[in-house]
Amino acid sequence: MKLRVDGLSVRFRLPGAVVHAVTDARFELRPGRCLALVGESGCGKSVMAHALLGLLPANATVTGHAWLDLPSSAAGNDVIDLVAEPEKVLAQRVRGRLIGLIPQSPAAHLTPVRTARAQLAETLRELGRADTPDALAGRAGLRPRDLDRYPHQLSGGMAQRVANALALAGDPPLILADEPTTGLDRPLVDATMAELRRLCDEGRAVLVITHDLRAAERVADDIAVMYASRIVELAEAAPFFSRPRHPYAKGLLDALPTRRFVPIPGRPPELTRLPAGCAFQPRCPLATPECDDQPIMNGVACHHA
Ligand SMILES: Nc1ncnc2c1ncn2[C@@H]1O[C@H](COP(=O)(O)OP(=O)(O)OP(=O)(O)O)[C@@H](O)[C@H]1O
Ligand code: NI
């Protein structure tokens, strides 16, 4: 299984405006690799994940491709374009079976009036899996008696494990985790990241969306930095953290308390009014008139990197 995102763009139509939420995204994700998608709030990270799952609202237009190469079957190689498939295929074949979603706030994602066991059982039934809720939950680090609880009776860590168990119920080869550590304390952040790493080491492909560069550094093989709807740097994690190339990526790392602790001045542009050239130009210490032209993305999208 391999995911190849190729020229993926998402636009939202609003009365009198168009939101450029994702622009011309390109990346690959292979089994056993973890890609962390990082960037400031509102830059398009969640929209990208939802586009891959066909979960965008009706005012969205998605263009480009997101190919999912599946292991060859008797019928030959199987390729799905997640952008082009009808909802029926996404519902029956993709969500939960090929792609598992670990949501941003697990407690809110669970149905409040049903126990964890009932929700796991229903998901397993929908997916046609023979597993029991207890076996599934056990693999996610839950005890059988935890499953008798209702969502409000679960601690943050347990709710996270139930969400992980739900995402893994269909044994999907690709996992999308959208801010899986939001609101968790440091030990739980570390445990969640260790769990994502384990899923990866088992041979799954993992895309993790996070604000938390420290968490990304622990878990990711590759880093994609997103700014104002575009991926502006795509690099292997080790060189990225020692030598980021895009001025925005440098700024993000310099803003870390463990580094210089100096925030990037200014704010990202409105996605309804993006400039024709480099969107980081107004905040960039390296800006020159050249930046009025959109830089070509070649590992890094900057005229000066
Ligand atoms: N249904 C929609 N209609 C119009 N605009 C939308 C819609 N959904 C999202 N957007 C806009 O798309 C942009 C990208 O949002 P997205 O949720 O992907 O950001 P993000 O990078 O995930 O941020 P965060 O880190 O805060 O989760 C935002 O400007 C958001 O307002
Ligand atoms: Ni988001």
TrEMBL record:
Q: Does the keyword Cytoplasm apply?
A: no
Q: How does it sit in the membrane?
A: Peripheral membrane protein
**Listed SUPFAM superfamilies:** P-loop containing nucleoside triphosphate hydrolases
GO CC, alphabetical: plasma membrane
One example GO MF annotation? ABC-type nickel transporter activity
Q: What is its EC number?
A: 7.2.2.11
Q: What keywords are assigned to this protein?
A: ATP-binding, Cell membrane, Ion transport, Membrane, Nickel, Nickel transport, Nucleotide-binding, Translocase, Transport
Q: Where is the ABC transporter domain?
A: 3-253
Q: Which reaction does it catalyse?
A: Ni(2+)(out) + ATP + H2O = Ni(2+)(in) + ADP + phosphate + H(+)
Show the NCBIfam families listed in the entry. oligo_HPY
Q: Which family does it belong to?
A: Belongs to the ABC transporter superfamily.
Put simply, this protein is called: Nickel import system ATP-binding protein NikD
Source organism per entry reads Nonomuraea polychroma
